[in-house]
Amino acid sequence: MRPIRVLIIDNSIFFRQELADKLASYLPKGSLLESAADPVEAREKGLLFHPDVIVTNLMMAALRLKGEPFITQMIRESKLPVILFGTINEGHAIAMREGAVGYVVRPHDRDIKESFYVNFADNIIKAAESHLAQGNTGHQDYRKKAHQGLAAGKILTRADWTPAKPTEKKPEPKILHYPSFNNSAKSSKPPPSNMPQPREDNKIKLIAIGSSTGGTEAISAVMKMLRPPLPGIVIVQHIPPTFSRLLAERLDNECALHVKEGESGERVVPNTVYIAPGGKHMTVSRTGSEMFLTCAPGPKVHSCCPSVDVLFDSVAKQIGGDAMGVILTGMGRDGASGLLSMRKQGSPTIGQDEATCVVYGMPRAAWEVGAVQQQFPLDQIAYAITKIAHG
Q1: CA distances to 282, 321, 346, 371, 388 from 317, in Å
Q2: What integer pLDDT is reported at residue 192 of this predicted model?
Q3: How many CB atoms sit inside 10 A of residue 126's CB?
Q4: Distance (Å, rounded) from C-alpha 38 to C-alpha 32?
Q5: Same structural domain for residues 146 and 201?
Q6: If we measure between CA atoms, which residue out of 303, 314, 302 comes closest to residue 268?
Q7: Which residues are catalytic?
């Protein structure tokens, strides 16, 4: 068997490097493995590296770019076999439905055994052999695009495509202090006329968060840092049906807060996070002192359902200045007008800064219209939420 070129796409640098190192032991001699952290980097690496097989995690494959899942675009553009991996057993059916050629169940880190890597390598070898046996040369399309880019001086070459050695793993940060709000970026846009400022004595009763491209991992990073007591949290992440439930289950296992997929008629309670179901808009209503969710199909807004604007608009109308708005990484403008509506009602609003966004689209749009009061790096978003929520 000839050497195989494998592109690994995963947000965790440590898992990417470990997977590459382990797979290299079981793939044909001379095989090369390269990795990418997100869809944007994956496209760049694909043009230069010319992979034979692409592997990525189930949640990354579900990310929506310009209205369709990343895996759909990846398969269409590369014409290469894609293998998905994830922690759920039912992922195989999902992977096949989305066009992947295989699915490998990944045990939790403490349970990963050598057999996992052997099985993974076997799937890669079979995918590469089958692809070549069918006379496919999808990687030639990548080479053609790469040569065109090089001729135009748009793509940089790399001398060494072997995986870098893992750097020393840093311990997870703990919430020991709050960020300095004086040092955070403040919106240069003047507040819209007649906009009330958040009250100093305002008791936050709800936290609303919106995100898209890169959002599943951004949300995970933020949620893992949060600790009770906190008000209920409602989240819209652009994600297809089924994947929203899987995201909620994954976060529930990772976080101190309880995380679940939102349901119509459900009462919003403290220390609980509600993920909008894929394919349904999620809104919040208020009856007396209680808040309830409505999750229902509806027309797409900014080509998205669920839509961040739909959620934020309902929060602005129903909860007013008693809520807090957060906008994270994402492509497009969804959430900008809704967050502005929240700010006009007196809600404190924050956004993820450009340096830490996978795609600085939604936060930029919200920033430019004056909807975001302050921007923070991703690793300070949880601090900011806690600080504001606790007053």
Answers
A1: 14, 10, 11, 16, 20
A2: 55
A3: 15
A4: 19
A5: no
A6: 314
A7: 212, 238, 334
Q: What is the pLDDT of residue 155?
A: 32
What is the crossing angle of helices 70-78 and 39-49, to 10°? 10
Work out how many domains the chain is built from and give that number. Answer: 2
- Spatial separation of the C-alpha atoms in residues 293 and 365, rounded to whole Å: 27
360 within domain boundaries: yes
Cis peptide bond prior to 348, omega within 30° of 0: no
Kindly report, residue by residue over 153-196, the tens digit of the pLDDT.
333 232 322 223 333 433 443 433 334 454 466 665 555 555 55
- The neighbouring-strand residues paired with 35 are 8
Close Cβ partners of 380 (under 8 Å, ≥ 6 residues apart): 179, 184
334, 367 contact by CB (below 8 A): no
Q: Where are the beta strands (DSSP E) in the chain?
A: 5-9, 32-36, 53-57, 64-65, 68-69, 82-86, 102-105, 185-186, 206-211, 232-237, 258-261, 272-275, 281-287, 290-296, 323-327, 349-352, 374-376
Radius of gyration over every alpha carbon of the chain, rounded to an integer in angstroms = 22
pLDDT for 269 equals 98
Bridge partners of 285?
A: 292
Range of the domain at 384: 196-390
- Global pTM reads 0.62
- Rounded to whole angstroms, the Cα distance separating 306 from 145 reads 35
Spans of the chain, pLDDT less than 70: 65-67, 109-111, 133-202
The residues, ordered by sequence, that sit 6+ positions from 159 with a Cβ below 8 Å of its Cβ are none
Burial class (CB in 10 A: 0-12, 13-18, 19+), 369: middle
Residue 336 and residue 279 share a domain: yes
Statement to judge: residues 347 and 206 lie in one domain: yes
DSSP secondary structure, 114-166, as one string = HHHHHHHHHHHHHHHHHHHHTT--HHHHHHHHHHHHHHTT-S---S--SPPPP
Q: What is the pLDDT of residue 13?
A: 84
